[in-house]
Amino acid sequence: MASRIEPPLALLAEVTHRCPLRCPYCSNPIELDRASHELPEQEWRRVLTQAAALGVLQVHFSGGEPMVRRDLAALIGEASRCGLYSNLITSGTLGGERELQTFAAAGLKHVQLSFQDSTSNGGDRIAGLPRAHEKKIAFAKAVRAVGLPLTLNVVVHRQNVAGLAEMIEMAVALQARRIEIAHVQYYGWALANRGALLPTREQLDAATGLVETTRERLKGVLTIDYVVPDYYAVRPKSCMNGWGRQFLNVTPAGKVVPCHAAQTIADLVVPSVRDGSLADIWYHSEAFNRFRGTGWMPEPCRSCDRREIDWGGCRCQAFLLAGDASRADPVCSLSPDHSIIETARQEAQSLSHAFAYRHYG
Ligand code: SF4
Ligand code: FES
């Protein structure tokens, strides 16, 4: 790959894997970082300073649940001091208006709040936490009371997609500007629960049709982003807009990776913020350079006219499903491994409802 490496646009700061929710579609790894391994505040401050110096424009504070960290306001303040736009990605089950006021004063610019369903029964069951839905509704109102812009994030799957219309109406009622409707992406806990989550083709088509008509109806009121499930696509998504092109993640323990699932690639040597600066890691590490550009690609990607559109799809999915991160994403119908996806789609016809809930240890 000879083309120039651009600086990253955004940093996903996964400040903790701790979370009061236990969502079965969580894309965090099965082996979660323990609280005792989390980077302390001073090291996160250094990460934020280095990110800004590297050219990062936005930081997304995420987890787990970032609000379990008592130093979150200080980290938002540090991001703001460095000139970074900060977004909080939260389950909204810890804290409320008082905390949000502190975050806004520290420089927080936007809140992205997850919902598991449109009702308490469904939402609490999927989250694995009693009263989660009720707390989220209160939190959404607090976000608007503080004057921060709100995006709702709903992950849809076989067991909640029937309530999609109500979820969109809920977003309007809560004065969200935007709703991100994302079908489950099958990594980490979600892959372990795939048999209970993958929608049928009929469910997918109904959801897609609903989004199209509702988008038109709510133009100017609510922006609807929609992510379709990989498993029903013909060509893969351009995962992370290409490996090492625009994004970097720092995990709770300080590992620096091109995407949230990269640590699952068994032979990837993953650098740490303790090994060198973010700039060194971004430009020079083996981990970030391994799948940059197109030079690493085997056939069919190497000679495909979409190789600089989808960048061969998702490296982590290729590893998780085909056992080799350098193969074409099996989602692609041109991939020699595509039968893995076809078999998984058959599973969606089974009626498993039991979740393996996310847990520590
Ligand atoms: Fe993308 Fe590779 Fe499939 Fe072409 S063959 S569409 S580059 S995954
Ligand atoms: Fe890692 Fe797609 S999630 S490259």
TrEMBL record:
<dbReference type="Pfam" id="PF13186">
    <property type="entry name" value="SPASM"/>
</dbReference>
<dbReference type="InterPro" id="IPR023885">
    <property type="entry name" value="4Fe4S-binding_SPASM_dom"/>
</dbReference>
<keyword id="KW-0408">Iron</keyword>
<dbReference type="GO" id="GO:0018189">
    <property type="term" value="P:pyrroloquinoline quinone biosynthetic process"/>
</dbReference>
<dbReference type="InterPro" id="IPR000385">
    <property type="entry name" value="MoaA_NifB_PqqE_Fe-S-bd_CS"/>
</dbReference>
<comment type="function">
    <text>Catalyzes the cross-linking of a glutamate residue and a tyrosine residue in the PqqA protein as part of the biosynthesis of pyrroloquinoline quinone (PQQ).</text>
</comment>
<feature type="domain" description="Radical SAM core">
    <location>
        <begin position="5"/>
        <end position="222"/>
    </location>
</feature>
<feature type="binding site">
    <location>
        <position position="23"/>
    </location>
    <ligand>
        <name>[4Fe-4S] cluster</name>
    </ligand>
</feature>
<dbReference type="GO" id="GO:0009975">
    <property type="term" value="F:cyclase activity"/>
</dbReference>
<keyword id="KW-0411">Iron-sulfur</keyword>
<dbReference type="InterPro" id="IPR050377">
    <property type="entry name" value="Radical_SAM_PqqE_MftC-like"/>
</dbReference>
<dbReference type="InterPro" id="IPR011843">
    <property type="entry name" value="PQQ_synth_PqqE_bac"/>
</dbReference>
<dbReference type="InterPro" id="IPR017200">
    <property type="entry name" value="PqqE-like"/>
</dbReference>
<protein>
    <recommendedName>
        <fullName>PqqA peptide cyclase</fullName>
        <ecNumber>1.21.98.4</ecNumber>
    </recommendedName>
</protein>
<feature type="binding site">
    <location>
        <position position="26"/>
    </location>
    <ligand>
        <name>[4Fe-4S] cluster</name>
    </ligand>
</feature>
<keyword id="KW-0884">PQQ biosynthesis</keyword>
<keyword id="KW-0004">4Fe-4S</keyword>
<comment type="similarity">
    <text>Belongs to the radical SAM superfamily. PqqE family.</text>
</comment>
<keyword id="KW-0479">Metal-binding</keyword>
<keyword id="KW-0560">Oxidoreductase</keyword>
<dbReference type="InterPro" id="IPR007197">
    <property type="entry name" value="rSAM"/>
</dbReference>
<dbReference type="GO" id="GO:0032324">
    <property type="term" value="P:molybdopterin cofactor biosynthetic process"/>
</dbReference>
<dbReference type="Pfam" id="PF04055">
    <property type="entry name" value="Radical_SAM"/>
</dbReference>
<dbReference type="GO" id="GO:0016491">
    <property type="term" value="F:oxidoreductase activity"/>
</dbReference>
<comment type="pathway">
    <text>Cofactor biosynthesis; pyrroloquinoline quinone biosynthesis.</text>
</comment>
<feature type="binding site">
    <location>
        <position position="19"/>
    </location>
    <ligand>
        <name>[4Fe-4S] cluster</name>
    </ligand>
</feature>
<dbReference type="InterPro" id="IPR058240">
    <property type="entry name" value="rSAM_sf"/>
</dbReference>
<dbReference type="GO" id="GO:0005506">
    <property type="term" value="F:iron ion binding"/>
</dbReference>
<dbReference type="GO" id="GO:0051539">
    <property type="term" value="F:4 iron, 4 sulfur cluster binding"/>
</dbReference>
<comment type="subunit">
    <text>Interacts with PqqD. The interaction is necessary for activity of PqqE.</text>
</comment>
<dbReference type="InterPro" id="IPR013785">
    <property type="entry name" value="Aldolase_TIM"/>
</dbReference>
<keyword id="KW-0949">S-adenosyl-L-methionine</keyword>
<dbReference type="InterPro" id="IPR006638">
    <property type="entry name" value="Elp3/MiaA/NifB-like_rSAM"/>
</dbReference>
<dbReference type="GO" id="GO:1904047">
    <property type="term" value="F:S-adenosyl-L-methionine binding"/>
</dbReference>
